[in-house]
Amino acid sequence: MLRFRIFRFFLLLWLLSTTHTAFSAPKVPEIITDNGLIYCTNASGFSFNPQTADAGTSMNVVTEQIYNKLFEPHNNSAKVEPSLAQSYSISADGKTIMINLRRGVQFHHTAWFTPTRNLNADDVVFSLNRVLGHNTSLPEFAADSNENVNRQYQIFHELAKKARFPYFESVKLNQKIKQVESIDPYTVKIELFAPDASVLSHLASQYAVILSQEYALQLNADDNLSQLDELPVGTGAYQVKDYFRSQYIRLQRHSHYWGKKPSIPHIVIDLSTDKTGRLAKFFNNECQIASFPEPSQLGLLKNNGERFQMTMMDGMNLSYLAFNFLRPAMQDKDTRHAIAQAINRERIIKHIYYDTATIANRIIPPVSWASSNSRRGFLYQYNPQQAKSVLQDKNLKLEMWVVDQEQVYNPSPIKMAEMIKSDLEKVGVNVKVRSVSRNFLMRNLNNKTEDYDLILSGWLTSHLDPDSFLRPILSCNTVNEITNLSNWCSPKFDSLLDFALIHHNIDMRASDYYSAQQEILTELPIFPIANIKRLLISNAQVRGIDVSPFGNINFEKLSIRGKK
Questions:
Q1: Rounded Cα distance, 93 and 387, in Å
Q2: Which residues belong to any copy of the Solute-binding protein family domain (predicted)?
Q3: In the chain, what are the domains?
Q4: C-alpha closest to that of 459 among 315, 343, 274
């Protein structure tokens, strides 16, 4: 029966996806336009399972509504608050976390899965072991009992190894968490290799969702474990009703949601347009909320203040220029410092971000509790005369790569690259800009053939703990990975990061991260450019919008004035 339902659903998806060139996407049902909400966003990097999404990319708002996590960030602070967890405790030595789970939490009933039980410790153990690369959360079968059962377990192992979990790999979570086990149906024990103050924040990140182990077992029995990441089953306030590839996702209210009942019964996520198209739909009232609006067009909202509203929040992100330490010219500290002084970041803020970002004078964004907002002591204010005195006689010919794909932290990467090229040419540096695809970049990194001198990049995270901001992009463990594009390694820097995890005192941790930032700003493997603000625009009738530093909003809290 399960196999038939899966086949029927995939057949529907296939028919829709193969005919979209001949037919337009289905019209949004009247039930949505009459008693629902339409949210316009983009389809770039979309995934139904955030566990498998690329680290450092902006997760689509959809998954925040479908899944829950053990913890949630508390008021954008260093603290977390229980979500699927009811309570938790940490042992005196800091190496054991005991989690008591919330009871009565139901999974979604969908066209492709009907749960027979509520969430319990098995689901948590399965979900965490999966991203850690451990397969011990599914039952062990005796080697000589049943050949078919053994084969199913073998298939699970084979398929599980094919899945990648980029965020958890980037923060080396499997080097932090030693073991996850269930003590009883509603108690989970997490053992750490060493005390680590960042683990709870990782478990509160948008990537750390809890899946249904029962669903995984059924898929595994059908040799179809990959569906776990394609047809979602969660415990969140909304569940997937329909999906039309690259067009829209229709969500409906989870009738047995454990939390507060959402006000809006139906939501459509429109994935079909670019920035300009989204704004056109928004002004035409075809969507009530639009994310990632084109900054240059935000002035159109000024004359419609009564109809529209803009919500803005400082973001946990950074755009930067990375110096490739594998290239001889970039190994000279004076050269790196002079290049930084040659770049006019105020011009970039004005013409790339249209003042929806601020100049980044630190590596950790100001919104984080570990950031220092002081400009005093920043070494690289714009000073083209000083830069020219260092660079003009070096006859530098540099190649700068730029991934031609807009990101949250850089809406116009090619244009930014050309502006930096212009700045450097004024001080005597010849720069060739090369536009590359993400796949091309990854292939060269894997083959160790990346021959760029400079590369434009950036980073963003889903919580405010600095460990997941600094470690992936600059630690020795990530050299030659796509996150550490500077190929920089400093044992001193790594030691500061490790030391910051030993204690839970926020002031002490912030002091360690300040020292780590100073090491970066002195050696300058990357030059910070901008911190972009997370913003969206909405119809004035929509209430309850609260944008997080990570760009998420909680549909559970939304309402539309005049509608029930």
A1: 51
A2: 79-479
A3: 2-272 (3.90.76.10), 317-532 (3.10.105.10)
A4: 315
Strand partners, 266: 36, 252
For residue 214 the two structure tokens come to 């029962």
Q: Distance between CA atoms of 209 and 197, rounded to whole angstroms?
A: 20
Phi-psi region of 548 (alpha: psi -120 to 50; beta: other; left: phi over 0): beta
Give percent helix, percent strand, percent coil of the chain, each to the nearest 5. 35, 20, 45
Outline where 137-198 has alpha helix (H). 147-162, 166-170
SS3 of residue 104 by DSSP: coil
d(CA 483, CA 474) in angstroms, rounded, equals: 8
Instruction: Give the closest residue to 87 by CA, choosing from 106, 105, 71, 104.
Output: 71
Long-range contacts at 134-138 (CB < 8 A, ≥ 24 apart): 134/174, 134/180, 135/160, 137/180, 137/213, 138/213, 138/216, 138/217, 138/220
Amino acid at 383: N
Please count the other Cβ atoms lying within 10 Å of the Cβ belonging to residue 329: 17
